[in-house]
Amino acid sequence: MHILIIEDEPKTGDYLQRGLRECGFTASLARNGRDGLHLACEEDVDLVVLDVMLPRMDGWEVLASLRAQASTAQLPVLFLTARDEVQDRVRGLELGADDYLVKPFAFVELVARIRTLLRRGPVREDDVLRIGDMEIDVIGRKVRRQGRAVLLTAQEFNLLHLLARREGQVLSRALIASQVWDMNFDSDTNVIDAAIRRLRRKLDDPFDLKLIHTRRGMGYVCEAAPGEPQPESLR
What we know:
The protein has 2 domains: 2-120, Response regulator (Rossmann fold, 3-Layer(aba) Sandwich), CATH 3.40.50.2300; 128-234, Winged helix-like DNA-binding domain superfamily/Winged helix DNA-binding domain (Arc Repressor Mutant, subunit A, Orthogonal Bundle), CATH 1.10.10. Helix content is 38%, strand content 20%. It has 8 helices and 11 strands. Helix 2 packs parallel to helix 3 (59-68).
């Protein structure tokens, strides 16, 4: 599941992003309200963790804009803010927030609230993803092909999960780097290509149907369809 954090305080934002990724979520971070609103509207986001006091556009304005657009009207939003007055909580809920958590907070409580909202909402991710003859148990973090277990490391599973939940979409190296490795993509590094090669050896090489394909100059896509032939150097 993809969580968007809109938080301007650097330490808090970095802490939330790192912690949510360690819990198995995909987590993006925006450091002002305007950028956060743009990401919420343009990316495949499942839930927003939103601060109130933000530069460029405050949390109230962000939430009102999300609720005014058909594509984001039902997007779960959890306010995470130091504004602890009763009138602030009431205002947030009346604007359409799904939950309101006051800082300082316990991280385990935040995660519990996020999981509750995701279970409650219509955008809940399927517990099992199926592409071709592959089955991914999202909760158990297990992968099978043709009924045979495919043993992956935690990072390999995160990479496959990102590709699979965006089935048919070409994902750039920059996006993969930011979502799986929490890093900016450097064109001089081959970390993404090397990780794809390792995943292919386990997931694709033992089977006739190939699921992970390269789109030259664009990135990678997971789908049960023929892809471009892979040079030996990329396998």
